[in-house]
Write a structure and sequence with these properties.
By secondary structure, this protein is mainly alpha-helical. The chain has two domains: 389 residues, MFS general substrate transporter like domains (Growth Hormone, Chain: A); 51 residues. The chain is built from 19 helices and no strands. Helix 9 runs parallel beside helix 17. The longest helix is centred in the N-terminal third of the chain and has 35 residues. The chain is globular. The relative contact order is 0.14.
């Protein structure tokens, strides 16, 4: 991957990228499959929301405990468990006979995915040092972000050529390859004797997120006055408050609140919340809109995000290097604002529809902004915390990015007005623009130039 890495390091980085790749890929590959799933299994917009959010609920909650599990049981063992669980759940999804079975299988898949990202980054932080570590994180960030964007393209091709079920079954291929490569790295598990896993905290967090999301998704169907809606919302908020209170007292917290006293870490994660909520929402809305309203095939709908994918793959590493030289603040401010400018161009979408003039320009500008954002954002958040806590910092940041997408998708029906038609698309675009502006403003006022040693 680069001449500065040893062969062993290159192999380790390959394993880390592949293990995370399936998690990020599946997070967006589902977007292009939603219309086909809804057509075959039924359920409309509500089922589509649950197919996305069932995965994000367990992923967002359990990714926080994955760091502790890696310390307690060994990162390689945790990675293997995550890969096998993800593969089994993918096969179950491909065989799903009805929406309920599918949603449960997606929740199991999200739980397995939670153990992949932190263990992958832990491999990098324990294998690479100094400048090589920064480059490795930059490559990992570029590849996993590209996986998020290439998901709709790959899924679309599989759906058109075969079935939406193959969009999930294909996960077995990279999983098998990763499991075969792990023994060749020569790495051995290291376990921390006094490490503990906060099982109760994980349960409370999962239930809190689930109840909150249930209220947001079902509110358009039942109304705020329905006891199941307001009761779930209040109960979910109460459980999340209990979870935060527990994190102050428990010996091995899933979410160490002390990390948020570090300015760049707290500001970077707040910016992550805004930016990734917008990213998750716009990619879902655009993909479904192109299929359900404009009649695009799944492959063509997936191709809509290809320009942004190419730009992220080409420019992310360079943006990370420039941010390391000149500081991340400008990149983390300008990037989201450029993304917002790209999305504003989507307000030109109308009848007669033209992808080339109404969608492509916005996707190109959006891709440039995203490439300028992702690597500096990740490096800044991880760099704000010492290497001994990099795994925990990464788990927190990934959890926040997934929870951001979870809440954005849960509020989808409210944002678009109940239907993903032209008006709904425009409403979603405006919401995403506001989120991205908030992310840029947060970065400008919150991020400070990292302190480096004279020899760095």
């Amino acid at each position: 991957m680069t001449d500065a890495f040893t062969p062993a390091q290159r192999l380790t980085l390959t394993v880390a990228v592949l293990a995370s790749f399936v998690s990020f890929l599946d997070g967006t590959i589902v977007n292009v499959a939603l219309p086909a799933i809804s057509t075959e299994l039924g359920g409309g917009l509500t089922t589509q929301q649950w197919v996305v959010d069932a995965y994000l609920i367990t992923l967002g909650a359990l990714i926080l405990v994955a760091g502790s599990a890696s310390d307690a049981f060994g990162r390689l063992l945790v990675m293997r468990i995550g890969l096998v669980g993800f593969g089994v759940a993918s096969v179950a999804i491909a065989l799903a006979p009805d929406p309920v079975f599918l949603i449960v299988a997606r929740a199991v898949q999200g739980a397995a995915a939670a153990f992949l990202v932190p263990s992958s980054l832990a491999l990098i932080t324990s294998t690479f040092r100094d400048a090589a570590q920064s480059r490795a994180i930059g490559i990992w960030t570029a590849m996993t972000t590209a996986a998020m964007l290439v998901g709709p393209l790959l899924g679309g091709a599989l759906i058109d050529l075969a079935s939406w079920r193959w969009a999930f079954l294909i996960n077995v291929v990279p999983i098998a390859g990763t499991l075969a490569l792990i023994p060749r790295t020569g790495l051995r598990d290291v376990r921390t004797p006094d490490a503990a896993v906060d099982v109760l905290g994980a349960v409370v967090c999962t239930l809190g997120l689930g109840a909150t999301v249930f209220a947001l998704i079902e509110q358009p169907n039942l109304g705020w006055a329905h006891p199941a809606v307001w009761g779930s919302l209040l109960g979910g908020i109460a459980l999340l408050a209990v979870f935060l209170a527990r994190q102050r007292r428990v010996r091995a917290p899933m979410l160490p609140l002390s990390l948020f006293r570090v300015r760049n870490f707290s500001a970077g994660n707040l910016a992550t919340l805004f930016i990734y909520a917008a990213l998750s929402l716009v990619m879902l809305v655009l993909t479904v809109y192109l299929q359900q309203t404009q009649g695009f095939s799944a492959t063509l709908a997936g191709l809509a995000s290809l320009p942004a994918t190419v730009l992220v793959a080409m420019l992310s590493s360079r943006a990370g290097a420039l941010a390391g030289r000149y500081g991340p603040r400008v990149f983390m401010t300008a990037g989201p604002l450029i993304m917002a400018g790209g999305l504003l161009l989507l307000l030109t979408v109308g009848e007669p529809f033209s992808y080339w003039w109404q969608v492509l320009p916005g996707m190109l500008v959006f891709g440039v902004g995203l490439a300028a954002t992702v690597s500096p954002l990740t490096s800044t958040i991880l760099g704000a915390i010492g290497p001994e806590r990099a795994g925990t910092a990464s788990a927190v940041n990934n959890a926040i990015s997934r929870i951001a997408g979870l809440l954005a998708v849960a509020a989808l029906a409210f944002i678009v007005g109940g239907a993903l038609d032209l008006e709904g698309l425009h409403r979603a675009v405006i919401a995403c623009v506001l989120l991205l502006v908030a992310g840029g403003v947060t970065s400008w006022f919150g991020i400070r130039m990292p302190v480096t040693s004279p020899g760095a």
